[in-house]
Write a structure and sequence with these properties.
Layout (H helix, E strand, L loop, with lengths): L3 H11 L6 E3 L6 H14 L1 E6 L7 H12 L2 E6 L2 E5 L12
Parallel strand pairs: 1-2
Antiparallel strand pairs: 2-4, 3-4
GO molecular function: RNA binding
InterPro entries: RNA-binding_CRM, RNA-binding_domain, RNA-binding_YhbY, YhbY-like_sf
Keywords: RNA-binding
Length: about 100
């Protein structure tokens, strides 16, 4: 689990990022989880947007993504989820 200080640090890093994935009408599926997992391995920190036509609640979507990818939820702000997962081979972010 991330500490409050680490979450603040990651939020400041994520502020300038653009969302890479969008969750829409189909919700979260296995294929999306695999793609998000691969992207997290490459980037460590990313934003995901939840579209208006998504049937599921944003907290449910965040929970599914966190469980599926084994990542940490940094924050949910509006319809944007910020996820962090330490990369095994491509470590870029040094947590405080």
């Amino acid at each position: 689990m991330l500490t409050g200080k680490q979450k603040r640090f990651l939020r400041s890093k994520a502020h300038h990022l653009n969302p890479i994935f969008q969750v829409g009408k189909g919700g979260v599926n296995d294929n999306m989880i695999k793609q998000v997992f691969d992207a997290l391995e490459a980037r460590e920190l990313m934003k995901i947007t939840i579209l208006q036509n998504c049937d599921e609640d944003k907290n449910t979507v965040a929970e599914q993504l966190v469980e599926g990818t084994n990542a940490d939820l940094v924050q949910i702000i509006g319809n944007t989820i910020v996820l962090y997962k330490e990369s095994r081979e491509n470590k870029q972010i040094q947590l405080p």
